[in-house]
């Protein structure tokens, strides 16, 4: 749940409270260690902790990470490993879906529904709330077109958009569906919400 707290003195801007589940950090650690090696990951984490002492703490899958800390971590990781390529967030989303939704993953049970409408309208919002305790994702299936909307996110960071679309692209693949994506509204172009649609064109 998002809580906005206005600081009384000097009409300071609001302080935003939103957490991201530590699963996202653990997934990044596993995938980055596999790609770049444990030594380089540990060196990066050491430099990160020098910049922000929060990262001296042990972060587990159940740890609630303040949103501003998680976004700082991701931005620093992009700079360190990917030449600050923001599109990499889509790959992070795909990796997160594969890590969590594939057989043996923590949330594979969410894909046991055989009804695609339930997957879009019921399971997808549950997946969002599994990772985030703020913001809102809604899903709706109209005919053969799935609509995903994200609203009420306190920080309009591109991560929320690219990570989620990457996640659901992979989720559809795991679900066995082939889709065509269309961007309707986007943080990347200045909109105040995210809206993507996926036309389901067949099975994989």
Which labels suit this protein?
four-stranded antiparallel beta sheet; 22% strand; H-NOX domain; alpha+beta; two-stranded antiparallel ribbon; 45% helix; 204 residues; disordered N terminus
Give an overview in words.
With 204 residues, this protein is of the alpha+beta class. It has one domain (1-204): H-NOX domain (Alpha-Beta Complex). Helix content is 45%, strand content 22%. The protein contains six helices and eight strands, in the order βββααβαααββαββ. The chain has helices at 23-36, 38-51, 67-81, 88-101, 116-131, 158-175; strands spanning 3-5, 15-17, 19-21, 64-66, 136-142, 145-151, 177-185, 194-203. The strands form three sheets. It has a four-stranded antiparallel β-sheet. Strands 1-2 form a two-stranded antiparallel ribbon. A hairpin with a 2-residue loop joins strand 5 (136-142) and strand 6 (145-151). The termini are far apart.
């Amino acid at each position: 749940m998002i809580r906005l707290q206005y600081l009384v003195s000097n009409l300071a801007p609001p302080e935003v409270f939103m957490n991201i589940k530590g699963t996202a950090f653990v997934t990044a650690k596993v995938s980055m260690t596999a790609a770049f090696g444990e030594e380089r990951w540990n060196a990066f984490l050491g430099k990160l902790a020098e910049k922000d002492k929060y990262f001296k703490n042990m972060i587990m899958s159940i740890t609630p990470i303040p949103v501003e800390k998680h976004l700082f971590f991701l931005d620093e990781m992009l700079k360190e490993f990917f030449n600050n390529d923001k599109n990499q967030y889509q790959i992070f989303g795909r990796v997160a879906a594969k890590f969590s939704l594939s057989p043996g993953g923590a949330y594979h049970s969410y894909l046991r529904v055989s009804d695609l409408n339930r997957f879009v309208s019921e399971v997808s919002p549950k997946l969002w709330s599994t990772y985030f305790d703020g913001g809102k994702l809604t899903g709706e299936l109209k005919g053969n077109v799935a609509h995903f909307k994200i609203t009420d996110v306190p920080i309009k960071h591109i991560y929320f958009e690219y990570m989620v679309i990457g996640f659901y692209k992979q989720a559809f693949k795991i679900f066995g569906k082939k889709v065509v994506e269309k961007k309707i509204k986007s943080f990347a172009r200045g909109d105040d919400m995210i809206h993507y649609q996926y036309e389901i064109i067949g099975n994989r």
